[in-house]
């Protein structure tokens, strides 16, 4: 281990209001009358706690939307615990006033005998349990909220429940960690923000929360939301008050691997355990963590950590279920992280998860925001902490942002820096991503504000056609339809003119119909294959086909089967660890792209240049398909513009949409 530089992020606090004990930002989140609030404060400042207090103190109803299932589970568990221990609610009352909208909760309800889960969630729009006094909170991932709004079948007696009911039934609609929202994901957020600004009957206020001071007003402006309806709220840090973080000592270490760094600091790990504090280890790559498990077990044993006192948190281990309890580490999304001495994780723990950890070992992440979120997990409250940042030549050379950050740190060796200084450096790229730009011109089509606005426009149009928005509701949506929605509608109408062509009409209709279905997919969530260990007698877990191809020999050696429930699965002897390749294979991610003028698909690389590749393939003026450019130039140019504006590619191998992103 070579320490290349080190510095300390200074202890920082937030003020407290004399009556409520809330910070100024928390108080404004509860009381500010503005329809749309954009709030940012450092990790650990208690942004989500403000809405817990709104629920308790004012009896308000909150729809709290978070980016991950794990964060959903953790927030619900933390809220339940607080209602019982801090606010004196009975366990029965607390449990009856919280609803979870995610796939894990769906599976739990199914196992408990619930058969009408969609009906249950539609009912929870207006109340979870109106027989008991007190506020309520629905904690949801965005896919489930979208699924409720765009559900395929009406429920008896509840068919008209939809977006307007959400706006009138909740006091707050909160988008947590909004900086993580992809352009296509702004369909849902943009819809709520626009309707709140126009619909006089709306009770809800929209709050966007982030640790990152980024400006989403350019997106909102493109949706014709007037600026006077938006307030920005920033937490002012103070030298005294409620401590958010103690001093955090950052050490940048060049090391061949995470295990070698941990071996050199076993004594530190042991001391933290003896103090009753947790140790957190965060990897960049899932494959590295999985390969390192045998060595990690030895390190934990050397530090005096007993079996099942360490929790592994990543997409594979979170999905584990079954009968095999022989492993050294605990796993599963149902586990409470606070009960373990060491947490070994990937990016799953970056957001909204609070640990009692003062010692953290981390790799920097693929983006600067990963770094900011990760190191913010350490030294919460009035505790000082140490964070080891492991990197090697590959990490250093591959990530431009990290090179710049290390060089910045090297200009402040051993110094005490302020949290705002380090945040400004790390947030620079994210701020640029959201930065305003011209709405027209090919070079601006791909910019975040434009693509987000047009994705919201597509979502708006799809919602207008939903059965829950008939009559006066449809008229209101039509009256308030933002400019991007009108543009999307006009382009699709132009493309649908090709449906009259006897040769390519079927292709044009299929492409347009499937393009509109893209509104239902808020994020690119890859469907996992189910892997059953020990010939079906051990654990089962989910992993993407691409990950298995790159890291294991499983798909080369064992057949892919279709299970009774229709899901694809593969049965392997032994455990996952028995099937790792010596070296990671380079396998490109690809997709079968479809086009509006031909039934032929084209295999394209599914990477950052996918939109450019699709446009290049579509624009070819050769072969029989090129006649469409001569016969239908307006429709063809409309299709080209539509893809450039939205960044959405219709795929022949796309998975059916469900509330989890894929079925």
Topology:
Elements lengths: L1 E8 L2 E3 L9 H8 L4 E5 L8 H10 L2 E5 L3 H17 L5 H5 L2 E4 L1 H9 L5 H8 L11 E5 L1 H8 L13 H7 L2 E4 L10 H13 L6 E6 L6 H6 L7 E5 L2 E2 L3 E4 L2 E7 L3 H7 L1 H9 L3 E5 L3 H17 L7 E4 L1 H4 L2 E2 L19 E4 L11 E6 L5 H8 L9 E7 L1 H6 L1 H11 L5 E2 L1 H8 L1 H7 L13 H17 L7 H9 L2 H14 L8 H13 L10 E5 L6 E6 H7 L2 H4 L3 E2 L5 E4 L18 E6 L2 E8 L4 H9 L8 H5 L1 H14 L17
Parallel strand pairs: 1-19, 3-8, 3-9, 4-6, 4-7, 5-6, 7-8, 12-18, 13-16, 13-17, 14-16, 17-18, 20-23
Antiparallel strand pairs: 1-12, 2-10, 2-11, 15-21, 20-21, 22-23, 24-25
Helix pairs in contact: 1-2, 9-20, 11-13, 20-22, 22-28
Characterization of this structure:
With 663 residues, this protein is of the alpha/beta class. The chain is built from 28 helices and 25 strands. It starts with a strand and ends in a 17-residue tail after the last helix. Among the domains are: 2-6 and 241-313 and 327-430, P-loop containing nucleotide triphosphate hydrolases (Rossmann fold, 3-Layer(aba) Sandwich); 19-235, Rossmann fold. The strands form five sheets. Strands 14-16-13-17-18-12-1-19 form an eight-stranded mixed β-sheet, with helices on both faces. A seven-stranded parallel β-sheet has the order 5-6-4-7-8-3-9, sandwiched between helices. Strands 15-21-20-23-22 form a five-stranded mixed β-sheet. The model is unreliable at 441-446 and 656-663 (pLDDT under 50). Helix 9 (186-198) packs across helix 20 (448-464), helix 11 (258-264) runs parallel beside helix 13 and helix 20 packs across helix 22.
């Amino acid at each position: 281990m070579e320490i290349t530089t080190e510095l300390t992020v200074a202890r920082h606090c937030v003020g407290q209001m004399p009556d409520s004990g809330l910070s100024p930002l928390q108080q404004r989140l509860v009381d500010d009358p503005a329809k749309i609030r954009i709030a940012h404060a450092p990790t650990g400042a208690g942004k989500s706690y403000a809405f817990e207090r709104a629920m308790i103190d004012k009896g308000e109803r909150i729809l709290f939307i978070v980016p991950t299932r794990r964060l959903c589970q953790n927030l619900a568990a933390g809220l339940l615990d607080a209602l019982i221990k801090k606010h004196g609610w009975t366990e029965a009352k607390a449990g009856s006033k919280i609803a979870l909208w995610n796939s894990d909760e769906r599976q739990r309800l199914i196992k408990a005998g619930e058969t009408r889960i969609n009906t249950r969630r539609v009912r929870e729009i207006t109340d979870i349990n109106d027989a008991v006094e007190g506020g309520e909170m629905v904690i949801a991932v965005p896919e489930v909220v979208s699924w409720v709004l765009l559900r395929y079948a009406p429920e008896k007696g509840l068919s008209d429940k939809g977006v307007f009911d959400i706006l009138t039934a909740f006091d707050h609609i909160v988008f947590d960690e909004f900086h993580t929202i992809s352009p296509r994901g702004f369909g849902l957020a943009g819809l709520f923000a626009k309707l709140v600004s126009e619909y006089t009957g709306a009770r809800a206020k929209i709050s966007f929360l982030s640790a990152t001071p980024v400006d989403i007003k350019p997106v909102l402006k493109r949706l014709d939301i007037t600026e006077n309806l938006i307030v920005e709220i920033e937490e002012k840090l103070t030298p005294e008050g409620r401590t958010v973080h103690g001093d955090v000592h950052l050490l940048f270490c060049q090391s061949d691997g995470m295990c070698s760094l941990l071996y050199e600091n076993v004594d530190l790990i042991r001391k933290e355990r003896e103090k009753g504090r947790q140790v957190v280890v965060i990897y960049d790559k899932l494959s590295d963590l999985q390969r390192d498990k045998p060595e990690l077990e030895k390190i934990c044993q050397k530090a005096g950590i007993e079996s099942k006192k360490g929790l592994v948190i990543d997409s594979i281990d979170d999905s584990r279920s079954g009968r095999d309890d022989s492993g050294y580490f605990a796993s599963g999304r149902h586990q409470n992280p606070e009960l373990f001495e060491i947490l070994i994780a990937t990016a799953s723990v970056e957001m909204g998860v609070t640990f009692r950890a003062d010692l953290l070992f981390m790799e920097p992440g693929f983006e600067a925001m990963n770094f900011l979120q990760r190191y913010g997990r350490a030294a919460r409250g009035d505790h000082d902490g140490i964070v080891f940042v492991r990197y090697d030549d590959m990490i250093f050379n591959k990530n431009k942002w990290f090179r710049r950050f290390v060089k910045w740190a090297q200009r402040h060796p051993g110094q005490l820096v302020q949290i705002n200084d380090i945040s400004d450096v790390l947030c620079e790229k994210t701020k640029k991503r959201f930065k305003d730009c011209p709405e027209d011109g090919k070079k601006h089509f791909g910019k975040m504000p434009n693509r987000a606005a047009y994705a919201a426009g597509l979502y708006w149009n799809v919602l207008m056609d939903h059965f829950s928005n008939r009559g006066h509701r449809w008229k209101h949506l039509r009256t308030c339809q933002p400019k991007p929605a009108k543009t999307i509608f006009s382009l699709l109408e132009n493309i649908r003119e090709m449906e009259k062509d006897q040769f390519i009409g079927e292709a044009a209709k299929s492409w347009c119909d499937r393009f509109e279905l893209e509104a239902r997919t808020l994020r690119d969530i890859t469907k996992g294959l189910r892997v059953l260990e020990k010939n079906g007698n051990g654990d089962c877990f989910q992993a993407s086909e691409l990950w298995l191809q790159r890291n294991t020999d499983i798909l080369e050696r064992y057949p892919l089967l279709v299970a009774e429930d229709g899901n694809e699965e593969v049965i392997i002897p032994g455990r996952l660890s028995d099937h790792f390749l010596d070296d990671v294979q380079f396998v490109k991610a690809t997709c079968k792209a479809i086009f509006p003028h031909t039934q032929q698909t084209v295999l394209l690389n599914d990477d950052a240049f996918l939109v450019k590749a699709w446009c290049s393939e579509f624009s070819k003026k050769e072969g029989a398909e090129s006649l469409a450019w001569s016969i239908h130039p307006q429709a063809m140019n409309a299709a080209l513009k539509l893809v450039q504006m939205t960044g959405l590619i219709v795929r022949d191998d796309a998975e059916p949409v469900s509330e989890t992103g894929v079925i």
